[in-house]
Design goal:
Elements lengths: L2 E7 L2 E5 L2 E5 L3 E3 L4 E3 L22 E5 H11 L12 E3 L12 E4 L2 E8 L4 H7 L4 H8 L4 E7 L1 E3 L5 E4 L8 H8 L6 H9 L4 H17 L1
Parallel strand pairs: 6-7
Antiparallel strand pairs: 1-4, 1-7, 2-3, 5-11, 6-10, 8-9, 8-12, 9-10
Helix pairs in contact: 5-6
């Protein structure tokens, strides 16, 4: 696989229903080498810090294979960065990954932590009020990652995958289970035994505590 594009978003306003929101979802490709730090890319706007950004969601990745599927589905081309991803990677298909898998790009090492959950901001950016439902049904969520090793990368760098050897959960299972409001204890423990993002871990730990207290 190859790194097709590095994309950065500046703060931008969009009309969302009855109000105006500020977002960093409108990302555009940048030229030249870019430094990847523990919290992502300097200058990339993170406006909704409750749900985005931080060490465990430092970058969002989307793949050429998933983009190709969407282009056929939508009937038109999609430019890198359309889905708000920082890194666009050729041939990457997000459903094939597990939480914990590593991606090596040049000197940088990234680790998969979570799937992307579609929201109203994403639907507004796509100009489609049904987008959240469509994106959920497609099960091509893209990948949030933490930065294991910082460094400099550039478009054209090779990308290799190292499968996580520990206990884990697939990105697709984690994605599906996000919408399950009555997760089993076994499912909750599978999530918590994997190296998931801290936001998800906090919520799931509370859910498990509540479930075991009732048992």
């Amino acid at each position: 696989m190859k790194l097709l594009s590095i994309n950065i978003g500046r703060e931008r306003q969009q009309q969302r229903k009855e109000y105006i929101e500020t977002t960093g979802i409108y990302k555009l490709p940048v030229d030249g080498p870019v430094e990847i730090k523990s919290l992502g890319i300097e200058g990339d706007a993170i406006c909704d810090k409750k749900n985005h950004g931080g060490a465990d969601q430092a970058l969002y990745l989307y793949g050429g294979a998933d983009y190709a599927w969407w282009e056929e589905e939508l009937g038109h081309k999609l430019a890198p960065g359309t889905f708000g991803e920082n890194l666009t990677i050729s041939e990457l298909e997000s459903a094939a990954f597990n939480v914990g898998d590593f991606l090596h790009i040049g000197e940088v090492i990234l680790q998969v932590t979570a799937p992307r959950i579609p929201c109203g901001t994403f639907a507004t950016r796509m100009g489609d009020p049904q987008w959240v439902k469509k994106f959920r049904a497609a099960e091509r969520p893209g990948l949030y990652v933490r930065v294991i090793r910082e460094g400099v990368i550039k478009a054209g760098d090779s990308v290799t995958v190292e499968k996580y050897a520990g206990e884990t959960i697939s990105i697709v299972e984690m994605y599906r289970e996000h919408y399950n409001k009555d997760k089993s204890e076994a499912s909750l423990r599978r999530h918590l035994n994997a190296p998931i993002a801290l936001r998800a871990r906090k919520d799931l730990e509370e859910e498990l505590q509540t479930r075991t207290a009732k048992a």
